[in-house]
Amino acid sequence: MSDADLRKAWLETLEHQRRLSPPTLANYARAIDVLFELKEKANLRDLDAQQVRRCVARLHAAGLSGRTLALTLSAWRGFYHWLARHKGFAANPVQGVRAPKSPRHLPKVLSVEQMQQLLEAPAAQAETRVPSDLRDRAMFELLYSSGLRLGELVALDADDGRLDLRQAEVTVTGKGSKTRSVPVGSRAREALRDWLRARALLARPQERALFVGARGKRIAPGTVQARLRAWAKRQGLGAAVHPHMLRHSFASHLLQSSQDLRAVQEMLGHASISTTQVYTHLDFQALAKVYDAAHPRARKK
Description:
The protein has 301 residues and is mainly alpha-helical. The protein has helices at residues 3-16, 22-39, 49-61, 66-86, 112-120, 122-125, 131-146, 150-154, 186-198, 221-234, 243-258, 261-268, 273-276, 278-294; strands at 163-164, 169-173, 179-183. It has 14 helices and 3 strands. A 3-stranded antiparallel sheet has the order 1-2-3, with no helix packed on it. Helix 2 (22-39) crosses helix 4 and helix 7 (131-146) crosses helix 11. The N and C termini lie far apart (71 Å).
């Protein structure tokens, strides 16, 4: 089989057996394309760890971060694991290769006060009953209330029972096709009921999507992002607000209140608790600011 055939067969395996989402598959495909470009005329079977390290060094010199390189290496490692298992390749040259470390950037979050300004300011309370405004408020309340990813939000349907306002929970399918159920707060339920009463004014007949755009079809992720930016500006927030920031804020505020890292991990749908632990650093940062401002021996003279 040619390199292109091997690439196609592996991606089909990921799609049908691991049921990866289209964006994730696209990321894997791009990573393998990069490998093919860097190896030039070398045969896939002949690559060794030293050659892989040189490829990583070239990418790092080109400005790719340690995190991006780690994701790239993960794709290469999975590809070679599949080749060794199903195509008779002798070894996995990526197995011992690690990406260079880079500074870990903490996620950006809104404070509790900023979230209140975003969702409860007079502009939001005095909104007209325009369906698009009701939809936007319902989307943003749900993102913050339940910590949903943008893709999980736009994939929701109105008639499949996954959004249960009586039981105050929503069930979503996240990364790796993992399904989880998370609570929906009272403010979000109120906003969702308002939107559901107005939804028929925007949605096309037979359209299943919970949230629809101006043309009556399932709303696009880019539209949600643009609407949130405009909403935040209208509410007087100077920060560049994006949907994932609401998920980060959900996790940070919940952890500050509960101190239950496992519960937050479960609600976020993180496979590893180490991913969730980044929010403990945000919590510590907030405590450190209080300490610096209040402790008599912390202030600079």
